[in-house]
Amino acid sequence: MRLGSVMGDGGPFVVASVGDLWFDLRQILPPGDPRACDMKALIASWQETGPRVAAALGAPGLQGVAARPAELLAPVPQPGRILCIGRNYAQHAIEQRAAVPKAPEIFLKLPSTLIGPFGDIVLPREVPEVDYEAELVVVVGRGGRRIARDEAMDAIFGWTVGNDVSVRPLQHRGTQWTPGKNFDRTAPLGPYIVTRDELPDPRDCRVSSHLAEGEMQTGFVREMLFDIAILIEDISRFTTLEPGDLIFTGTPPGVGEARTPPRWLREGDVLVSAVEGVGALRNRCVIG
């Protein structure tokens, strides 16, 4: 199943996509049920709610919409935690002339960075050297603390696509990456969540990014230095993962910083970020 968040006249609500049809969960769950309008609440109750939604989607008479909703938001508009993994592909570390990590390099991203899957990336007017980083993103399900590696996949709700757009001069000005990774409205996410029952393991999925010149990045999830189970185990040692938390799992090689000359994002660029089997983002770059 695919689940997305949409902005309506009365605020956000959740939609489910099956095949080419989209369904409004407000038509499926009881009137006024907050889970129809709150992705985090829906994920937290999925063990109970999921079978009900799946049964309704398979029932005759439910009206779906063939057109993709125009106002798709980031699938989890306000996650409690956004954890990101730096240099999780060896070739990306090498292209940045950095040591290949011996343990996950973890940093945080703020919810204010997120935009929808087809929204505008706002390039900061202060710094022109802005880079792209397509990534598979884990959406946490039941979560927990001190999750063992062999139980880690059971803590995951599903997968989505993200781009960790990075302001390189501010990322590299010191040992802390926070300023370069947290400009408002720089991180597209979506277009929806693919639940784990539809894609149990994404290791054979290809991650890529594209600009007008063609494909810029490519790599397979299986090439990550630290796989998803290792990341869940490592992160949950120091923080309790909760439903709807996000983990950006790292980007493959081909970033603009490593090119000769460097290829920074420019006003008017259309950046496409894709994970096979999960989806694709398409975002125009504007100056703000």
Shape: globular
CATH architecture of the largest domain: Alpha-Beta Complex
Distance between the first and last residues' Cα: 36 Å
Q: Please, what is the oligomeric state? A: single chain
Query: What structural class should be given to the helix and strand makeup?
Result: alpha+beta
Give the % helix: 10-25%
Features:
alpha+beta; 6 helices; Fumarylacetoacetate hydrolase, domain 2; five-stranded mixed β-sheet
How would you explain this protein's 3D organization?
Helices cover 14% and strands 32% of the residues. With 288 residues, the chain is α+β, with helices and mostly antiparallel strands. It has two domains: 2-57, no CATH class; 82-287, Fumarylacetoacetate hydrolase, domain 2 (Alpha-Beta Complex). The strands form three sheets. Strands 1, 2, 3, 4, 5, 6, 9, 10, 12 and 15 form a ten-stranded mixed sheet that branches. Strands 7-17-16-13-14 form a five-stranded mixed sheet, with no helix packed on it. It has a two-stranded antiparallel ribbon with strand order 8-11. The protein is globular, with a radius of gyration of 18 Å. The relative contact order is 0.20.
